[in-house]
């Protein structure tokens, strides 16, 4: 099979995956809507005094609050997952890097949490909109994030912040507490995996010796390509 | 203020019934149907003030039902329900005459606010015509 045909098939697979995911998140939201309304109805009944035992009413109200808080969290996740799915609709679009990052961090947080690494996100306001391949940008962010976590010791700190660059936006991963022997932050194997993607974005990945406070980091520059 | 009559159109039977019950507890007369065809036949016999209309349904889509409602009585206000992550489908509904849209899972306080606003607009519309 030639390379073009292989790329074409990969695109079709991604498109299929995106559509499945979009349908799945839509259904998930319907289930969440029913859970929310049903628990809301229990809450209404408590408020209207239909549960006469005060202790039971208080206990039920606590349970309802817990369910509703979880529904809010799950809805955010479903919304972000839906965003991911629709990113595959078009190869290039105009977007805010902060929005992409905010969406992706919902899922990335857990990887840091498992290692008790604190994750701080600082998104600079007023960044220019970028025209590029959003799905590919998210893929590169994911790989760089994984690389940053790999270089950090447990119970340390990873800060991710955005800033403007001429003709684009920079995402910086600042590491506080690297593992001993991590002389180089850029892992050759991961860089090899994302090289094609970074090239397609016409972006740049670089190791930053100092990102502020004397801490090292990894920088990703995403340029805005010419619109259609 | 007289009672507000709301028609909930959603193929999720459980969702529509529970939402109707919650609205009834707040003195809103709520009726439910679970497909677009029933929605269009119901508005002929028991016209509501406000329709809460799901965008994605198996028979007629929410946008088709919206078109049918507005063709029959433009003063009936429609609030679209959308489960989509983006707001584009809701905005499309508004461009086609919906009063507003709300995302699923819904925020009941927000929905009540929109129902009241839609009702007031319906009254104004009826007074003018």
Tell me the CATH superfamily of the largest domain in chain A: Histidine kinase-like ATPase, C-terminal domain
Q: Do you know the CATH architecture of chain B?
A: 3-Layer(aba) Sandwich
The backbone outline of chain B, from C-alpha atoms, is globular
Major sheet of chain B: order of its strands? 2-1-3-4-5
Q: Rounded to an integer, what's the Rg of chain B over CA atoms?
A: 13 Å
* Low-pLDDT runs of chain A: none
Distance between the termini of chain A: 30 Å
Write down how many β-strands of chain B occur, each being a DSSP E stretch of 2 or more residues. 5
Mean pLDDT score of chain A: 89
H/E topology pattern of chain B: EHEHEHEHEH
Approximate strand percentage of chain A:
15-25%
CATH class of the largest domain in chain A: Alpha Beta
CATH T-level fold name of the largest domain in chain A? Heat Shock Protein 90
Integer-rounded radius of gyration of chain A: 22 Å
Unreliable stretches of chain B: none
Number of strands of chain A: 7
User: What's the helix count of chain B?
Assistant: 5
Q: Mean pLDDT of chain B, rounded to whole units?
A: 92
Q: Largest interface, by Cβ-Cβ below 8 angstroms: which chains and how many residues each?
A: A-B, 24 and 17 residues
| Top CATH class of chain B | Alpha Beta
Q: How far is it from the N-terminal to the C-terminal residue of chain B, by CA? A: 20 Å
List descriptors.
heterodimer, A: 228 residues, alpha+beta, B: 129 residues, alpha/beta, Rossmann fold, 5-stranded parallel β-sheet, 5 strands, globular
Can you walk me through this structure?
- The complex is a heterodimer of chains A (228) and B (129).
- In chain A, helix 1 runs antiparallel to helix 2, helix 2 packs across helix 3 (97-114) and helix 4 (134-151) packs antiparallel against helix 5 (188-201).
- Chain A has two domains: 3-87; 93-223, Heat Shock Protein 90 (2-Layer Sandwich).
- Chain A is of the alpha+beta class.
- Chain A has five helices and seven strands.
- The model of chain B has no long low-confidence stretch (mean pLDDT 92).
- Chain B has helices spanning 13-24, 36-45, 62-72, 88-95, 108-128, and strands at 5-9, 29-33, 50-54, 77-82, 100-103.
- Chain B is of the alpha/beta class.
- The two termini of chain B are 20 Å apart.
- In chain B, helix 2 runs parallel beside helix 3.
- Chain B contains five helices and five strands.
- The chains are: A alpha+beta (228), B alpha/beta (129).
- Chains A and B meet through helix 1 and helix 2 of A and helix 1 of B.
């Amino acid at each position: 099979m030639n390379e073009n045909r292989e790329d074409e098939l990969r695109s079709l697979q991604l498109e299929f995956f995106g559509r499945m995911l979009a349908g799945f998140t839509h259904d998930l939201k319907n289930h969440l809507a029913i859970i929310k309304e049903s628990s809301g109805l229990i809450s209404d009944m408590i408020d209207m005094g239909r549960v006469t035992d005060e202790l039971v009413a208080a206990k039920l109200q606590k349970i309802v609050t817990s369910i509703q808080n979880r529904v809010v969290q799950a809805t955010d996740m479903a919304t972000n997952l839906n965003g991911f799915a629709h990113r595959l609709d078009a190869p290039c679009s105009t977007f805010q890097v902060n929005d992409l990052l905010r969406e992706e961090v919902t899922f990335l947080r857990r990887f840091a949490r498992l290692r008790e690494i604190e994750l701080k996100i600082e998104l600079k306001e007023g960044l220019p909109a970028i025209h590029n391949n959003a799905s590919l940008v998210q893929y590169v962010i994911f790989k760089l994030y994984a690389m940053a976590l790999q270089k950090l010791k447990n119970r340390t700190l990873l800060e991710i912040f955005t800033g403007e660059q001429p003709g684009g936006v920079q995402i910086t991963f600042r590491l506080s507490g690297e593992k001993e022997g991590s002389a180089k932050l850029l892992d050759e194997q991961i860089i090899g995996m994302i090289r094609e993607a970074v090239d397609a974005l016409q972006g740049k990945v670089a190791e930053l010796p100092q990102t502020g406070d004397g801490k090292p980091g990894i920088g990703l520059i995403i340029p805005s390509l010419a619109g259609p | 203020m007289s009672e507000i009559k709301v028609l909930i159109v959603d193929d999720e039977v459980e969702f529509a019934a529970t939402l109707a019950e919650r609205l009834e507890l707040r003195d809103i007369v709520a009726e439910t149907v679970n497909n677009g065809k029933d929605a269009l036949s119901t508005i002929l016999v028991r016209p509501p003030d406000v329709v809460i209309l799901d965008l994605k349904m198996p028979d007629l889509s929410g946008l088709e039902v919206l078109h049918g409602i507005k063709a029959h009585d433009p003063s009936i206000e429609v609030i679209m329900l959308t489960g989509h992550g983006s707001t584009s489908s809701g905005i499309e509904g508004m461009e086609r005459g919906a009063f507003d849209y709300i995302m699923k899972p819904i925020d009941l306080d927000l929905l009540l606010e929109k129902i009241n606003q839609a009702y007031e607009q319906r009254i104004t519309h009826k007074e003018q015509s």
